[in-house]
Amino acid sequence: MGVTIGAIMGAALVAATLATRWVPSLPGPRQLGPVAAFRLARGNRPFFVLLAAFVTQALAVAVMLAGAPYVAAYRLGDDALTSVMFVCLVGPSMLAVPAWAWLARVHGPVRCYLAASIGFCGVAGALVPAIAAGGLAATLALTALAGVCYAALQLLPLSLLPDTVHADAARTGQAQAGAFTGLWTAGETAGLALGPGLYALVLALSGFVSAAAPRRAVP
């Protein structure tokens, strides 16, 4: 799988490079070094507020995805439901993207982003008693609703990111797109990477005992 995904990513990078090789390089403002660029970027408060929200939500989603196998096996009683829960999360999110894009045009991306964030938190809270009761239908339905909100959590921050970059350019007179996208990617990667570790820590602290298949561990 690693070789396959690596080959796909490599092909995409090569294709992007070859497709833009004819674009002329225009003279721009003086380029800052990495240290000076990040020092100047610290004054962009809207960017860091947006980044903090996005990283926190990436961490939450990573914890949710890491917990799906446990929920399926020990709360719903069927390991195969892990794939079903994943489909219930991702499927509605794909279908909801056009709707969120339209709502953002009508009501503004910030307002829609706040509504989606509140909705995601509400659905996540409702999942706790549904999972504890072992209700399969309720769990899958709430997972689908979480997927609808998840679509906005992925779409709208990325639409707001260029606004924060352009606002900073107007503030400082220096184009800092590279520094900001670098910080954004690093934050997102950290949130997604810490999620499974955080969930594993919670399992360890709560007394979960792991075991190799086919013997099921004690929850």
Explain the overall architecture:
With 219 residues, the protein is an all-alpha fold. 79% of the residues lie in helices and 0% in strands. The chain has seven helices and no strands. The longest helix is centred in the last third of the chain and has 37 residues, at 136-172. The chain starts with a helix and ends in a 14-residue tail after the last helix.
List its salient traits.
mainly alpha, 79% helix, 219 residues, 7 helices, globular
Helix tally? Answer: 7
Structural class: mainly alpha
Separation of the first and last Cα atoms? 30 Å
Number of DSSP strands?
A: 0
Main sheet, how many strands, which sense, barrel? none
- Helix content range: over 70%
Q: How confident is the prediction overall: mean pLDDT?
A: 86
Low-pLDDT segments, ≥5 res: none
Radius of gyration: 21 Å
> How much of the residues is beta strand, in percent?
under 5%
Shape: globular
Helix-strand string = HHHHHHH
Write the layout of secondary structure elements.
Layout: H1 2-19, H2 34-41, H3 45-75, H4 81-107, H5 109-132, H6 136-172, H7 177-205
Short description:
This protein is an all-alpha fold and 219 residues long. Helix content is 79%, strand content 0%.
